[in-house]
Design goal:
299 residues; Lipovitellin-phosvitin complex, beta-sheet shell regions; 13-stranded antiparallel β-sheet; three-stranded antiparallel β-sheet; 16 strands; globular; binds 2-acetamido-2-deoxy-beta-D-glucopyranose; Vitellogenin domain-containing protein
């Protein structure tokens, strides 16, 4: 059975023994790790925060995924004490796609702004954001580089794309007991391959002004992502900057180095257990963290 993992871009062929279990369609589970690190220059860590969560998504329409976060935990490692707490992130949302990638998010009111921004960053992980005429060249093995502008969660950026496609080294489908096979839709042939899309962004217009969960003022630096597709689907993003923290974090008001690392890995494709829920009062918002959302949508 073929299912759409990322509209217009990635499908999966799933081994199904009993089709009656799949009446509600597939459910995709991803492991999510977002880590924020603040350091003084040169190297003394001031604070590290990690959000660990499970992202669950289901295809809703040809251009739409229905998702929510489950079992979210925040681990804070501070200078004086460490804390772990569970956080409420059960909010449902939809990611809307077009041929270029992610068009926006549909969220339900009322939403907490910090959760909305995390959802924007998560949706950005699914954003391929490449002109398909260029990506069609991935049907041959090789490496291509080109530059284009991309609308991302961190603004509209000049982005250098590096796309590589090579043969899969081994038949890991059997070795790893994975019960699905990924299919990159723009590829004409059907060969299993090892594809990576790296994006390095500079000169972003309208970047975020603040750091999540903090009122520190941000000066954006490097923003790179890597989408890796072989038998697995993994996306990682690294974002660097300088931040002037609030006085409560650093009493000397020094500029700190800031790094945000995000990792999203596909863990499983399983049959969904129930009817797809609906978002009744949803509103389409764009990915950019700096774009305001209707005030009746914020809590
Ligand atoms: C499908 O059936 C095969 C052979 O009986 C079995 O090895 C495999 O684990 C089954 N897969 C699933 C997903 O149930
Ligand atoms: C989350 O990511 C950070 C940074 O890459 C890493 O140090 C940490 O071990 C990861 N945590 C988990 C639970 O995967
Ligand atoms: C994750 O959340 C689900 C439903 O909210 C709950 O049933 C399950 O026990 C949780 N799992 C863990 C590991 O906390
Ligand atoms: C906090 O956790 C880190 C990493 O797990 C550990 O090295 C450190 O000693 C802990 N600090 C305190 C105050 O418990
Ligand atoms: C980025 O967004 C702007 C405004 O929403 C739109 O006009 C433009 O076409 C988008 N660019 C890309 C590359 O998607
Ligand atoms: C895919 O390519 C990456 C780097 O190009 C390599 O590190 C990895 O081992 C390859 N994976 C497989 C399964 O061939």
């Amino acid at each position: 059975m073929n299912v759409v993992l990322i509209p217009f871009f990635l499908a999966a062929s799933v081994i199904v023994n009993d089709t009656s279990k799949w009446t509600f369609g597939p459910k995709y589970s991803y492991d999510l790790n977002m880590t924020y690190i603040m350091k003084t220059d040169p190297q003394e860590p001031v604070e590290t925060m990690t959000l660990i969560s499970e992202l669950k998504c289901r295809p809703k329409a040809a251009d739409n995924l229905f998702c929510h976060l489950q079992n979210s935990t925040i681990v804070n490692i501070g200078k004086n004490r460490n804390t772990t707490r569970e956080v409420e992130t059960e909010q449902m949302f939809e990611i809307k796609f077009n041929e270029r990638g992610v068009e926006g998010l549909i969220i339900e009111p009322p939403s907490r702004m910090e959760v909305v921004n995390i959802l924007r960053k998560i949706a950005n992980q699914f954003n391929v954001g490449v002109d398909w005429r260029k990506i069609e060249r991935i049907s041959q093995a090789g490496e291509w580089q080109f530059m284009a502008r991309e609308n991302s969660s961190m603004g509209n950026c000049a982005t250098v794309y590096k796309i590589t496609r090579e043969e899969l080294k081994t038949n890991t489908v059997e070795e790893e007991h994975i019960d699905f096979r990924l299919i990159v839709l723009p590829m004409i042939d059907d060969a299993i391959s090892n594809l990576s899309i790296e994006k390095s962004r500079i000169a972003c217009i309208n970047p975020p002004r603040y750091v999540d969960f903090s009122s520190g003022i941000l000066k954006m630096g490097r923003f790179v992502s890597k989408i890796q597709i072989n038998n697995r689907f993994e996306v990682s993003t690294e974002f660097d900057g300088k931040v002037r923290p609030p006085l409560s974090i650093d009493s000397m008001n020094r500029m700190l180095s800031f790094k945000e690392i995000m990792q999203l890995n596909l863990k499983s494709i399983e049959p969904a257990q129930d009817e797809l829920p609906s978002i009744f009062y949803g509103e389409l918002i764009d990915l950019n963290i700096n774009t305001d959302i209707p005030s009746n949508f914020i809590n």
